[in-house]
Amino acid sequence: MKGLEKKHLLTIFDLSKDEINAIFEKTRLFKERQKRGIPHNPLIGKTLALIFEKASTRTRVSFETAMYQLGGNTIFISQKDSQIGRGEPIKDTARVLSRYVDGIVIRTFGHDIVEEFAQYSSAPVINGLTDLHHPCQVLTDVFTIIEKTGNCKGLKAAWIGDGNNMANSWIEAASRLGFDLMLACPEGYWPDKNIMEKAKKEAQSRIEIVTDPRDAAKDADVLNTDVWASMGQEDETEKRKKVFQGYQINSDLLRLAKKDAIVMHCLPAHRGEEITDEVMEGPNSVIFDQAENRLHVQKVILEWLLKSN
After folding, report:
1. Catalytic residue status for 294
2. Pick from 214, 243, 244, 240: which is nearest to 229 by CA?
3. Which of 8, 60, 134, 296 is catalytic?
4. What confidence score (pLDDT) does residue 55 get?
5. Number of H helices, E strands in the chain
């Protein structure tokens, strides 16, 4: 793909603005091609390994379907199936596995795991989610915004809730692509400080953290959220329910945004907690289009990284 250099994809900061726009441009073509039933199989004979230490529905199915539609194959490796879970050094697994397959998707806890894996892998490594970043999801989110509104530059996006991996990747996306981002998070649950500082140094748009969701939602073009307790935080669930009261996307908060604002959620959703059923099923919601677009964006990423590997 013109303008893209072959590399690993661990964070959105791994991509330039031009590279992101090239991914979006080709995603539109891939989605249209699929809707018209036109086959596209550039990855015949290629194999993608999926190493998942965290459970998944959308990430696993979208990557497996993407590889199938591109003509390739997948091998799914859960924690119980991997020697990593039994103490094999990551660098050993990376050097061996990358001699067998053409690309590797890792969905895990610590971001240092994917960084070390990429350091020693001779095959491209894609971050399918870590506790610090979720780049494929947020690339999909921004593509969906552009698909629905025509552009993202100059828009105001509001993040409501936990300053988690999604919030971190949204901060990087805003910095790269020039849209305003206001994150409403309770004290003590803010995004990563280092990511925020780097993004604000590079950004030509406004990136700000507030504690009042109403400030973030006011005149917003996009309202976005995620669960209050992510995987690995189950023991904090009841505490977080109390802390995040008031950080729900509901009809009252939606009325503060622009009339045609779109509502997003990366799923799975805890309806009645971070978002109401009414808003999720309402006319402003693009949540299920957003979920579908994981497939199309990831097909472009896979073709780019695996085609010449």
Report:
1. yes
2. 240
3. 134
4. 87
5. 12, 9
Q: What mean pLDDT do residues 198-207 have?
A: 95
CATH 3.40.50.1370 domain residues, the chain: 12-133+294-306, 136-290
Q: In what order do the strands lie in the sheet with 262-265?
A: 207-210, 180-184, 156-160, 222-225, 262-265
Could you say which architecture CATH assigns to the domain 12-133+294-306? 3-Layer(aba) Sandwich (3.40)
* Bridge partners (DSSP) listed for residue 156: 180
Catalytic residue among 136, 226, 296, 298: 226
Active site residue 137: yes
- Annotation says 271 is catalytic: no
Give start and end residues of each alpha helix (H) in 105-156: 111-120, 135-149
So what CATH class is 136-290?
Answer: alpha beta
Query: Maximum distance among all alpha carbons in the chain?
Result: 54
Structure-block tokens of residue 46: 């290629």
Residue 162 has what pLDDT?
97
